[in-house]
Every structure is written in structure tokens, then in C-alpha cells.
């Protein structure tokens, strides 16, 4: 009886998830910044991790946009939400992004980023991968 109840609950949960998955294909990418990016062409997230900074998150978002969404370097990454509960992975925090055309104006003030509404190009975000790697090497040298 208990097994059949669990099976019924799983069936209901799976049936509820099918329309969402069918509407948008979910992509996953382990990025150069060693972070997980996950999402659809509408919105994607970079899962947060202790010790990571702005350069890491932007690098990961740029990688995801280029590799999974075939974005050009001139396309823009727009921060949809700053650190919030993930929409794709339970019990994790993430930063949400969307891809926009190159006509969207870039906001260059990233001192307190990433914050909702901030914009940068995919090319600039991917260029930060070198900064992110250099920062990690410097941190490793301290040990």
C-alpha cells in the first residue's frame, strides 16, 4: 500500500512537470568559471557558490549564452534577478539572466553587481573568465 501511494505521488508530480519541460528545453553547462549554469532561452541562472565573485558569475553567464544559446559577442546579458532561490534547482541560490539584442544599452557600473537590471555584452562577460581564473590562482597561492 505504501509503495503504491508513493508511486501515485511520483506520477502526479511527473505529470505536472511535463508541460513545463516540453515548452522550453532546459540546458546545463559546467562553465569555465567552474560554476553550473542552467536554464532556457527565456531565462537562465548561474548557481551561486561560496568564494565566487562578479567575474565568475558573469563569465559563467557569458559561456552559457555563447555555447548553449548561440549568442554573438555583441548580444547583451541582462540581470533578471540577483541572488535568489533558484527556479531550476531546489535548495540552491542563483543569479538570473536573460539574453537581449545588441541594441540594449550597456550599464557599466558593476561595483555592486550583479544587480537586477544591469547589462553587459556577452563578449565582455566571457572576457572576465581570465580575471576569474587569475583570482582563483592568486587565492590558491595563499595556502
Automatic annotation (TrEMBL):
Signal peptide span: 1-22
Keywords in UniProt for this one?
Signal
User: This protein's superkingdom?
Assistant: Bacteria
Q: What is this protein called?
A: Membrane-bound lysozyme-inhibitor of c-type lysozyme
User: What organism, scientifically named, is this protein from?
Assistant: Tropicimonas isoalkanivorans
